[in-house]
Amino acid sequence: MKIVKIFCQVDDFWKQFQVLWEKSLIEEGIVKRHRTCRLSMSEIMTIVIMFHFSRYRCFKDYYEKLVMKGYRKYFPSLVSYNRFTELMQSCALPLAVFMTSQRLSTTQGIAFVDSTKLEVCENPRIAQHIVFADIAQRGKTSMGWFYGFKLHLVINHVGEILSFCITTGNTDDRNPAVIDQLTKGLWGKLYGDKGYISDPLRVKLREKGIELVTKIKSNMRNKLLPLLDKLMLRKRALIESVYDFLKNTCQIHHTRHRSKNNWFVNLIAGLVAYSFLPKKPTLKFTAAPEFENALLLI
Questions:
Q1: pTM of the shown model
Q2: Residue 3 above 70 pLDDT?
Q3: Which of 82, 114, 195, 258 has its CA 20 to 30 A from that of 39?
């Protein structure tokens, strides 16, 4: 079953990561009790990830109606819902390391980049918002203003995540720090929307062996493009399909969070769950050699 497969991979990772994590902890010189939790870290991570495969929109309903009744044979030492919400915060770092170290795919020379908004509250309630008041920022997309964060993704042509970055809502998509994070280990061609148009950015990526390809704005001169690039720009909506899966199927986005840590856990667990999906949005194509040197006007 899916739950057994996920638990085995998470448990194998945790056994290796736990040793490194405990070695890097800073001692305070104060003797503290280290009581063993009824649930292991692997079990906590698995339960959090499995939420994003369920049809439940509320984590409390999922835990009380599905986990405590349907998953008890897999997790015989379950704790109460209130206790589990406290334990969830402890798996934030292991989940992030698990995602970045084992669940990211590798590039095959074709990649798509884009960002999406992660609202933390509705615009009329910005002044009343408390949970993320000290870190969330106002940003603007083609759909208007929002208050929250941005998720930046780079995917390949089969819908697998190559890299990701989380920033505040007012961060420019062309921010050098964000682009450096997203393009680590990339090569080949990177397709983006008009928000990534920047000559300095294009030159910087070319030095790293990456060719940035975007459409042009209405006030720019037409330019010649290879036919393959022309076709790939038409298929750039693939990354929008990935965001749709993440938000509607994996449920990485809602505005009811009451904790920063649990918001981060929910987001990363959704990305991990997406990486386990057997069917992802995929772009099927065959590149003919004679098209590589063909030129077209945008």
A1: 0.90
A2: yes
A3: 258
